[in-house]
Amino acid sequence: DQQVKQNSPSLSVQEGRISILNCDYTNSMFDYFLWYKKYPAEGPTFLISISSIKDKNEDGRFTVFLNKSAKHLSLHIVPSQPGDSAVYFCAASAKDFGNEKLTFGTGTRLTIIP
Amino acid sequence: DTEVTQTPKHLVMGMTNKKSLKCEQHMGHRAMYWYKQKAKKPPELMFVYSYEKLSINESVPSRFSPECPNSSLLNLHLHALQPEDSALYLCASSQIELANEQFFGPGTRLTVL
C-alpha cells in the first residue's frame, strides 16, 4: 500500500518555464513533507521541506505548496534550468515510537528541454 | 564536510558469501539509516540508529545485520543473501533533532548471483 504517491513517472518542461511536480499522500499522521532530488549514480539530495502547519515554503526558485485537506503537495520550479533535470522524490515523515520515519514516493523524472 | 560516503560502489556476491557494506559521515550526525531501493521503486527504510543504538528495524530478515561501531560509521553485514536482495543500498544520516532532513550517500549497487 503506497502511502505517498507520485502519479507522473516523467515530466518534460521547456527551459525557462515552470515545472510543477505533484505528490499525494494517504496517511493523515504525516507531519512533515520533503522533496529530494536524485541524479544518476548519486544518492538523493534534500531540496526543500514544509511542515504540516504551513501551506507554502519558498527557497529561491523552489516553492512547495501543501493542501492538507486534499492530502496533496506540489513542488514548483521557476524558471526551470537544464541542471534541474533529475528524478524528484516526494517524502513524508511521521513519528513512529518517537523516531521519525520517512516514506518516499516513487519519483518523477523531470527533463528540462533547452 | 557535508558528505556521506559509501563503499564499495558495486558489489557482486554469491548466495553463500559474507560481505559488508560501509557508510561514513563526519557531520556530527547522531542518527544513521539504511535504505534499500529496487529499480523504479522508492527507497525503503531498513534500519535506524540513534546515538549508536538500533532504534528501528523494519522487520528486515536476519541475513542483513547492521552495526554502528561509532558515531561516524555504519556497517551492513550480509550473509546468505538471495537474488531478490539485489538492489541499491543507501545510507543516510541526520541530526537527531532534524531527522526529516537526511543526507544520503551515493549507494552501493548490490548484485546477488
In short:
The complex is a heterodimer of chains A (114) and B (113). Helix content of chain A is 0%, strand content 59%. With 114 residues, chain A is an all-beta fold.
What would you say this structure looks like, in words?
The complex is a heterodimer of chains A (114) and B (113). With 114 residues, chain A is mainly beta. Chain A has no helices and eleven strands. In chain A, the strands form two sheets. In chain A, strands 2, 4, 5, 9, 10 and 11 form a six-stranded mixed beta sheet that branches. In chain A, a hairpin with a 4-residue loop joins strand 7 (62-67) and strand 8. Chain A starts with a strand and ends with a strand. The model of chain A has no long low-confidence stretch (mean pLDDT 93). Chain B is 0% helix and 57% strand. Chain B has no helices and eleven strands. In chain B, strand 5 (44-50) and strand 6 form a beta hairpin. The radius of gyration of chain B is 13 Å and the shape is globular. The interface between A and B is medium-sized, with 25 and 24 residues.
Helix content of chain A: under 10%
Task: Kindly report the greatest chain-chain contact and the residue count on each side.
Answer: A-B, 25 and 24 residues
* pLDDT averaged over residues of chain B: 92
Q: Which value, in Å, is the CA radius of gyration of chain B?
A: 13 Å
Relative helix content of chain B:
under 10%
Report low-confidence residues of chain B grouped into runs of 5 or more. Answer: none
From N to C, what is the helix and strand string of chain A? EEEEEEEEEEE
The termini of chain B sit apart by 36 Å
Total DSSP E strands of chain A: 11
List the uncertain runs of chain A.
none
> Helix/strand/pairing class of chain A, anyone?
mainly beta
Give the overall average pLDDT of chain A: 93
Class per helix and strand makeup of chain B: mainly beta
Task: Give the CA-based shape of chain A.
Answer: globular
Total count of helical runs of at least 4 residues of chain B: 0
Which of globular, elongated, flat, extended, rod-shaped describes the shape of chain B?
globular
Tell me the major beta sheet of chain A.
6 strands, mixed
**SSE string of chain B, helices as H and strands as E:** EEEEEEEEEEE
Beta-strand percentage range of chain A: over 45%
What is the alpha-carbon Rg of chain A in Å? 14 Å
